[in-house]
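ok trying again, last paste got cut off:
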Amino acid sequence: MDWIRSQEEIESELFQIEQSFFNSMVSYDKAISYCQSVLEFYRAMVVAQGFSDEASEIRFFKREKPLIYGLLLKYTHQLSFELEFPNMFFDRNEKIVNEKIEEVTAFLSNHKDLVLYLELQSEVFDSQFFLRKNKGLFIYPGHHNYSFDSEFCTSHDGLVANIIGYQEFLQFLQHKLSASIPYPKMPLPQINWTGSKIALTELGFALFYSGAFNHGNASLKSIIQLLEKVTGTDLGDYHHTAIRIRNRSNRTKFMDKLKISLQHWMADLDD
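nice, full thing came through this time. structure:
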């Protein structure tokens, strides 16, 4: 499907739009119009050409359409926020943003199973979720016609788009929050990870499944990237590493080591 626009092309175009207008609300409105034009183009091509096979259809409704639709929702959320709170005072800013963050995280928590399905790049239910012939199983009630068009929607592409939109909006809100609370920037200490990459990957998955970041709504990828940055370690294909962890006799080898080390420290204090 040579008519599909790459993620790099879309993000570059949206970046140019955001940089072209001093007024953020104007840039959001222009970005929404751009996303709508891409979606309309996609719809025209899907209706006119269809898909060569089911794999192509799944890929489109799992990745391509939700990406641009999710970005449309991101800018819609941001525009609505700026219109609702055009002149926030600093003493109100933190309270308002935190309330919005709670709304967004509640949505993501309610759909954590699908978030995890996407994060782990699972394909088990792809044919049920992302083929139009199965759209009668479930349709997420979105706010745009792109969620109900029988020729241009599946049971779950609209929900995936909403997840993307809310994840992007959450980053926007967290930036708003950090901008309203001044704090000194401290340099990271120069430390090196001297354990194994498998152990660090095990830690990353444990942190993700424990829900310790962003009320349980931080993505697995973002946690892995954080660990890579802090430790200066490239974890590579961490999904493949996770399979190796699952297949070994002791699946929680590093977690067990951490627990024993902490228990020894507390026992030494007791003595």
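cool. The chain has two domains: 7-180, 197-270. The mean pLDDT is 87.
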